[in-house]
Amino acid sequence: MAADAFKLDTGNTAWMMTSAVIVLMMTVPGLAFFYGGMVRSKSVLNMMVMNFVAAGVVGFIWILYGYSMTFSTDTSGINEIFANPFKYFGLVGLTDDNSLLGGGGVPALVAVGFQATFAVITVALITGAIADRIKLGSWIAFSAVWVTAVYFPLAHMVWGGGLLSGDGPIASALSTPIDFAGGTVVHIDAGAAGLALALILGRRKGWPKEPMRPHNLPYVMLGAALLWVGWFGFNAGSEGAADGTAGRAWINTFVATCVAMLAWMATEKFRDGKATSLGAASGVVAGLVAITPAAAAVDSYGAMIIGLVAGVLCALAVGLKFRFGFDDALDVVGVHLVGGIVGTVLIGFLATDKQGGFLPEGAERGLLYGGGVTQLATQVVVAAIAVVFSFVLTYVIGLIIKAITGLRVAEADEVGGVDFALHGETAYDTTPATGGRVKEGISA
Amino acid sequence: MKLVTAIIQPHRLDDVKSALEAAGVKGMTVSEASGYGRQKGHTEVYRGAEYTVDLVPKVRVEVLVDDPDASAVTEAIVSASQTGKIGDGKVWTVPVDAVTRVRTGETGAEAL
Questions:
Q1: Is CATH 3.30.70.120 the classification given to domain B2-111?
Q2: Contact at 8 Å (CB) between A177 and A170?
Q3: Which end of chain A has fewer surrounding CB within 10 Å, N or C?
Q4: Torsion-angle region of residue B92: left (phi > 0), alpha (psi -120 to 50) or beta?
Q5: PROSITE patterns of this UniProt entry (chain B) (predicted)?
């Protein structure tokens, strides 16, 4: 990639390592708490475990062949869709001279680590749609297959020089698609996958008749707060350097989220009579999702508009599952799919390179910023491709795993709670006396 | 002997406890309970989905008393827990056949 010899930039490198750490914090513990608080008390441990396991499975695969399959540089033929998984298998042969972020003086391994955390959270996001009812082994198998067949190719197509990048056919026919930090690759991807897998799994027993209230809203608030903080690494870190564009992404991430939170709460106030803590937490995440693809590509007003639209639309979209009868337990569709589409498409109206904004080479300004409809068309097309690509492949993967190992726990296990059924544990000891005794101690 | 059982609003517990102590009651059992009477439950909304919550939190106070004290104890509980609003709870009394203090083996009124 880099023809010039690699020259280390310690400032950029320090920022990327920091970003990588706080993006990992978004999954563990962020998502684990955000989702863990929203499920019932009988399945909170399983939800947290599924998020931890997503990190485990994806992190391990990423180092083995995931990075290579996403970012090793060949892009002809099949490599328009995914790169060679064996080129840097186990990261062997990867040097700073072909660092993904070599232009900014960031070593190859730091770039690998940063990108690893994105793969991890994308898979972890899906757990929200499938809460309370999937077998642990099936989730592990699904994580491994899905990240390989869906995430790596989509990330390669958008960020690795493939089909949906500035080098691809859409860029030639229309303009370069803009996805700064993962609106398509992460959020539309995970949202569409969550929908497909929720459809295959079927509804939780009792849904939607039986009340399934969040069991611990402070956990949800804590998780949302961790996501908010970590997201600065996600978006501003996606610049790959500590510079003004990263600053633009940071500011947009901040202000869009502020507006989205207020917008979600206001929607609730008008519709339901009260603004809720769950609404505040959800609005934060909706704003973060929507600003992700646009993070550096809009000015402050653009970010506020994206936050406003995402906050209102996502607050309304979480009702879709009741209308259409799909049990997306924790609203991965309403928040991530809808939020991801909102951000990706609004770029077509709001993209600008003024006020510190950054547009990739070959991208146009948005419709409202004098760029005509070209970028809007591009954004709609890439959003649609991402939805279809993820939904269809996920559906096929889900059916295959269902046929081989089955997906769903036994009904009695679901009713009794997956915490005990799958892990043999209970989250909360709420009784002073349980009448048990230690059966057999483990001697050291 | 009688067992006086009271279902009260959780926030009245401290007053009821003081009133019982003032009435000479030496011990009691308090447990968390949930239920509803005429006030029914309430609704909660999570991400636009409305849930009716029928059972509301209550506190159950149980006191063992000697027959002559039952009405005074009931009176103490009622006056300490009454707010005049729906949901204040109920107090009832049932006869008790036998009571034994575990530590000493004392029985009957001695064990109260």
A1: yes
A2: yes
A3: C
A4: beta
A5: PII_GLNB_DOM, PII_GLNB_UMP
| Close Cβ partners of B71 (under 8 Å, ≥ 6 residues apart) | none
Q: Give the predicted TM-score (pTM) of the model.
A: 0.91
Ranges in chain A, pLDDT < 70: 1-4, 74-76, 432-436, 444
* Predicted ipTM of the assembly: 0.80
Task: State whether B49 and A319 contact (CB < 8 Å).
Answer: yes
Distance between CA A44 and CA A382 in Å, rounded?
36
What is the distance between the alpha carbons of residues A276 and A267, in angstroms, rounded to a whole number? Answer: 10
Q: Which of A211, A214, A319 sits opposite B48 (nearest CB)?
A: A319
CB contact under 8 A, A322 and B49: yes
Specify the number of domains making up chain A: 1
A2 is a domain residue: no
Chain B residues within an 8 Å CB radius of A320: none
Alpha-carbon span A360 to A177, nearest angstrom: 8
Tell me the C-alpha distance between A131 and A125, whole Å.
Answer: 11
Do the Cβ atoms of A390 and A193 come closer than 8 Å?
yes
Predicted confidence at residue B40, as pLDDT, reads 78
CA distance readout (Å), A237 to A232, A233, A390, B38, B61 = 7, 5, 25, 58, 58
The domain that holds A400 is classified in CATH as 1.10.3430.10
Residue B35, C-beta contacts closer than 8 angstroms, at least 6 positions apart: B7, B55, B56, B58
Q: What DSSP letter does each residue of A301-347 carry, written as one string?
A: HHHHHHHHHHHHHHHHHTTHHHHHT---TT-HIIIIIHHHHHHHHHH
Contact A331 B46 (CB under 8 A): no
| CB-CB contact of A158 with A184 (8 Å) | yes
How far is A392 from A396, CA to CA, in rounded Å? Answer: 6
CA angle A272, A275, A281 (to 5 degrees): 120
Whether A120 is in a domain gets the answer yes
Domains of chain B by residue range: 2-111
Range of the domain at A379: 10-423
pLDDT tens-digit map of A145-195 = 999 999 999 999 999 888 899 888 999 999 999 999 999 999 999 999 999
CB-based burial of residue A235 (10 Å sphere; 0-12 exposed, 13-18 middle, 19+ buried)? buried
Residue A1 maps to a domain: no
| Min Cα–Cα distance to chain A from B45, Å | 7
Of B45, B52, B53, the CB nearest to A272: B45
3-state SS, residue A194: helix
Q: How many CB atoms lie within 10 A of CB A368?
A: 16
Quick check: is A434 in a domain? no
